[in-house]
Amino acid sequence: MQKNEVKKPNESMLSRMVRHQMFIPVLALVILAVFNLIADPAFFKITVGQNSSGNMVLQGFLISILNDGSELAILAIGMTLVTAASGGQDISVGAAVAIAGSVLLRILGGGNSRPEELAAPIIVAFLVSCLVAMLFGAFNGVLVAYFKIQPMIATLILYTAGRSIAAWINNNELPVITDPSLGYYGGFIPGVPIPTPFFIAAICVAIIFLVLKFTNLGLYTQSVGINENSAKLNGLNPQVIKVITYVIMGLCVAVVGLIKVSRISTINYSTIAKDIEMDAILAVALGGNALSGGKFNMAASIFGAYVIQFLTSTLYKFKVSSDALPAYKAVVVIVLVVISAPTVKEWFGNVTKKFKVKEVA
Amino acid sequence: MSNNKTKASGSFVDKFNNLTDTNLLLTITVVIFFLMYIGAIIFQGGGFLKPQGFFNLLNANAALIVLACGLSIVMITGGIDISVGGVTALVSMCCAVYLDHMGGNVFVSVLIALAVGLAFGAFQGLLVAYLDIQPFIVTLAGMFFARGMTTIVNTKPFNVANEAFTKLKMTRVIIPGMGSANRKGDYIDAYVEIGVIIAILVVIVLFCLLRWTKLGRSFYAVGGNRQSALMLGINVKRTRFLSHVLCGLLAGIGGYVYFLHVGSGSPSHALGAEMDAIASSIIGGTMLTGGVGNIAGTFFGVMSLGTIQNIVSQAGLGEAWWIGITRALMLCLFLVIQSLVMVRKKKA
Amino acid sequence: MKDNIVLQMKNIHKSFPGVRALQGVDFTLRKGEVHALMGENGAGKSTLIKVLTGVYSKDEGDIFLDGKEGPVAIHSPQDAQKIGISTVYQEITLCPNLSVAENMFIGRTSGIGQNWRKMNSDTEKILKSLDIPATATQQLETCSLAVQQMIAIARAVDMDCKVLILDEPTSSLDEQEVEKLFKLMRDLRSKGVGIVFVTHFLDQVYEICDRITVMRDGQLVGEFEIEKLPRVQLVSKMLGKELDDMSDIKGEQKAYERKAGSVPVLEAQGRVSDAGIKPFDFHIDKGEVNGFTGLLGSGRSECVRALFAADRVTGGTIKMNGKPVKISKPLDAMKNGIAYLPEDRKGDGIVGDLSVRENIILAQQVLKGFFKPFSKAKQYEIADEYIKLLSIKTASADTPIKSLSGGNQQKVILARWLFTHPEYLILDEPTRGIDVGTKVDIQKLVLKLASEGMSVTFISSELDEMLRTCSRLVVMRDRKVVGELSGDDLNQSKVMSTIAGGDK
């Protein structure tokens, strides 16, 4: 009989640290930070300046990381759950953000592309856009859970159609909202020097942690993702749980839609949240979560999202154009998946074992 | 298990049940294409009436045919490749820069296209087949890498002014006897571009490859059941690797065909082409689960998608979003059909 | 080597970490015979076959093959095929999407091209010569399972195999299909092929086999001519009890007696699922321990799965304490106080990456509802309680369950279901693949639970265990309930003869 795994007392502090799930994202952050520190310490400078609407706000690369990374962090929440339960990723989030944003603008403008005043309170528009985004999420979820289509292929449908649907909702017009209150969500609330998206993200993070603490969402999604048969025999309905994760993803998408639209008070259907799915997937992977589903660590994913944004900002700092960014990130993805591939791990394990044997001998 | 299948009877239903998956899905596609095209001729007329309308459909979709063929092969083998659109853009850009800025040779530009495609195919195939990483993630990264590299090679779109290339681009292959008179009454010959000839050659070669070679049949075997294929003595890893290499090569060829058609380099070239290629392949009867598919079907899949697009725009719904939505609807429809075919078989 | 011997395995040893799977096993196969390889789970049959086909490498021993000088070396299934040893597995290892002809020839021929005409005509010839009802161009999937098996066999035969191993080929076939398969086997036998037949169906063994080799606990029990080994003796050899010492060991359980007027905790009538069992009736009283017995594949697991609605239920009624209830999915069963510890611990039981703690609370947590999670503190309290109660050996409550030993994993699953405080507990092979100490613990626990008023259904491949714990046994053969034994009938010889059935 196999001996139980007992914590080896001689296990070094270092190796335990290395095996911790936060190790890779923290290491990545440290490398990036050190790199920036050497290249140009001004990266870390935070100043107080006046923004376009005359508020005194904090400025600097770090602030913009907090600002832009927040959208990613919110999406990472949904992506983590979807990945855990269905063992695949939702690649339609960018397109879905366009839909959510478009719905928001449609309600706010009331069908008028240059409305003088808001046709509906922002909260109403936001709730409607939440509903729509959740419906599209449910559509993805049903394809995955009931039609048993691989998640990435199922979400491909919305990925293809999403931006077209978004344009169709507003008759391909680009409503511009002049009301300054819309700008608060993606910019600054007067008198508060910290960007609002950070607060929104903080609220979302707080909510998801409360949900994970006070409901069984975590236990259920992980059980379904790890062993669907077993989950079923324990009375769970794997299909319903998968759909729920996609609906939650839809909710996250709606929040990001609000922020995105608020930033520019209008929308650009083909560029809004472009390629954001890649970053969200990357955040999940960087957080050490298996892309094949199962056990997840929400905090690591969210932290991963900010690290990804740190990487993006660093690349911007070095004058990498936004169109060229994906090439660099693709390299990061490949490195991540290669080092976490089972065959590579096995090979690596064998090498270290041999090394240790030699050491003993 | 039921033994009703062994009962011999020549009824239509039995013949239907005995149809192989490949042929069943192919039949559905071909029937839908012809119904659509004939319907369009009857109800919409216009461009559909003249043979040149059909050839224009070919001209516009030649590159997509080649890309979709590549995707069919990886999908038959049970994989997926979503980098082909990005590779197409990268190939166009590399060739454009080489021909225009460096005044290069047309023949070498073809080699560049093939090399870029092969490099992508080989690297992705290596990761997928030998390191056993999910093909979707690998090729998603491939897609982003190719897109990013395209901008790194050159940020701005531009037209290629290279004499030899322009000559090749403008070459038209006349189809005898299919011409028609224009408004003035002059007889205009029907023609196709060079790219169409390449695409049709690719379709024929791949059709033969899949049907009459060991490698082709191994693709089907591996896609049908990887474990069984291994037990039957097939080198599964090599087969999966080769499927990606072939797909990469075809992305290179397709990229060049695309480049020949548009004659320019731009980072926004072939946006979403991978989705169109996957959709065409699925519409053409390639099963996402692998093991089922046919290059002829893929050809008709591309043509169906093109026809739908023409119908939508001729019906006065010219706005871009209608095309996007109809395509997605069609993809969704065929995915559901496949899902239902699977259910039917499980019950049978 | 004698002329008629085609394969000889001598003194084969094979160990896995902590397990001696084969200990000096001999096996001899003659030309033109069907040779049954019998044994209960863990007897070492499949290990022996995997050694023979090169999936595992042996630690010790030699394999001799007719026509080859000296011992042969087999390192892979391909090696085995090359020297004429072919295997047809229980799960069909052909490609369902290819045609019959392709499945016959793919991966075997050289060259680049595929000559369809020659392949099809060759295939037609083979199909005809073996009388297989299929056409060369048919897609494999459209053939019935039996025909698919036959095609797999035809492929093997066409590869000039001298030794054909059939690993449970009949487990998913119906009677007519089995008949067709047997006809093919007889044909091959008359052509001089040596066939190794692994099965759990006794009737089939006596119908087609010439010889039987029985294994138990990784050791050879013996090789017997079929005529000289009556069924009851075969069963006793497989289970490891000589007929002589079947001194009717009675368990500590009292004889089962139905109290007049008492209402059974659970009563099922005509219950049937889509897993291929015949409808069955069943009932269990408060505090009773009963069991389903029968050889592997007899349908004993499928019956309890049908009670719990683990498979799709297709008919029958269930009454709990006299009240009719609807149990169409596992959650229904759980709400009615039924708990089910599945047979396939790894596939259906544990949630590998989750901790011991989470695995213990899972079922009760689902019952309690989505919005009412146990607090962390409570979870640890529960986990610690059950870890202590069942003496689960784990580093901590947070250790992932997959890193525990099999026995301890089983205890965790047991804890999971005990924590739901069920009225009726179903244990399907709770003692499989775990150490003796744990086995005894589990048996004791079952009796203790019963004495506290819980009803328990206990399934085990080991008859000893069943007799020691159960006061009534439902006997199954070939997916049907064939008898029910209690009281004085509850002894080894009676159980075995009921399992064996027939007149021998």
Strand order of the largest sheet of chain C: 5-6-7-3-8-9
> Biggest sheet of chain B: strands, sense, closure?
2 strands, antiparallel
Structure annotation, total helices of chain B: 14
Mean pLDDT of chain B: 85
In quaternary terms, these chains amount to heterotrimer
β-strand percent of chain B reads: 5-15%
Tell me the radius of gyration of chain C: 25 Å
Helix content of chain C: 25-40%
**SSE arrangement of chain B, N to C:** HHHHHHEHEEHHHHEHHH
DSSP E strands of chain B, number: 4
Characterize the structure shown:
The complex is a heterotrimer of chains A (361), B (348) and C (504). In chain A, strands 1-2 form a two-stranded antiparallel ribbon. Chain A contains 15 helices and 2 strands. The longest helix of chain A is centred in the C-terminal third of the chain and has 27 residues, at 238-264. With 361 residues, chain A is an all-alpha fold. In chain A, a hairpin with a 5-residue loop joins strand 1 (47-50) and strand 2. In chain A, helix 3 (61-86) runs parallel beside helix 8 and helix 4 packs parallel to helix 6. The model of chain B is unreliable at 1-11 (pLDDT under 50). Chain B is globular, with a radius of gyration of 21 Å. Chain C is globular. In chain C, helix 5 packs parallel to helix 6 (175-190), helix 8 packs across helix 17 (492-500) and helix 12 packs parallel to helix 14. Chain C has 504 residues and is an alpha/beta fold. In chain C, 49% of the residues are buried. Helices cover 34% and strands 23% of the residues of chain C. In chain C, the strands form 4 sheets. Chain C has a 6-stranded mixed beta sheet, with helices on both faces. Chain C has helices spanning 45-52, 77-82, 100-105, 116-129, 145-158, 175-190, 202-208, 231-239, 300-308, 330-335, 345-349, 356-368, 376-389, 406-418, 436-451, 463-469, 492-500; strands spanning 5-16, 19-30, 34-38, 60-65, 85-88, 163-167, 194-198, 211-216, 219-225, 266-273, 280-284, 289-293, 313-320, 323-325, 338-341, 424-428, 455-459, 472-477, 480-486. Residues 244-253 of chain C have low confidence and may be disordered. The interface between A and B is large, with 46 and 44 residues.
